[in-house]
């Protein structure tokens, strides 16, 4: 009996200790997630209609993997991106909205891991045709000089002058890239910027550092097509609707684009008018219709008489 009681007490103690350790780990993970996401998870959870906010926990990247990536690609990772990978090997935060009692995925914030930080331009295969078209053919004209009062940085090239690596695929709406410009074959590249490549293969400058881009991504909640707010044509009307709903402070007239009439895009839909049935007019009575027919016939006879008089 004493042995069984002692065993039960020891078992309860081990279970309680395990639960305490798990609770401690959960608290530490929540604190880590809040620091890494700059508290955006709590903000999203308090927004109306937002559900299923998920942050994927990842282990830190190993230093040897970072050194291997730099040696393989002949590039030096920026210090802030290196520190980010030493904290977490990639970043993924998603959230959904409730529509008709169903969770619809909406926001997505992604930073590829070191293993998926691949070059945008893959080396040419030995089995490819010698005159096969490639992205390098888009650099046939020199249009990358800085011009204008805003001094926009020179756009990257698709040939050996730039080394481009994909940070985020943007759900198929484009690509956010880590770009090294003015590269020389065999020379280690160090200077880098963050650029956005849209679906028309046009480049758009985002930020000069990874830290600035990371804050920009967090600030925009990872909404669909938020990168297009920094393009001349802006995001799609549907993306603007989501931005106006969940980003009232950021979705201002400075970032949104004007429509064809020169007015900013606003939701001018009036449900009381748009979904209201057409009002039917009063149906004329039979007497009124008979009178109208007789009156029109008399008018017709008068008109024929006048026409006959003119002929005479």
UniProtKB/TrEMBL annotation:
Residue span, Knr4/Smi1-like domain: 60-216
Record region (Disordered): 267-312
Coiled-coil annotated residue ranges, if any: none
Lineage top rank: taxon: Eukaryota
Compositional bias of kind Polar residues: 285-296
Biased composition (Gly residues): 302-312
Protein name per the record: Tubulin polyglutamylase complex subunit 2
Organism (species): Austrofundulus limnaeus
Organism lineage string: Eukaryota, Metazoa, Chordata, Craniata, Vertebrata
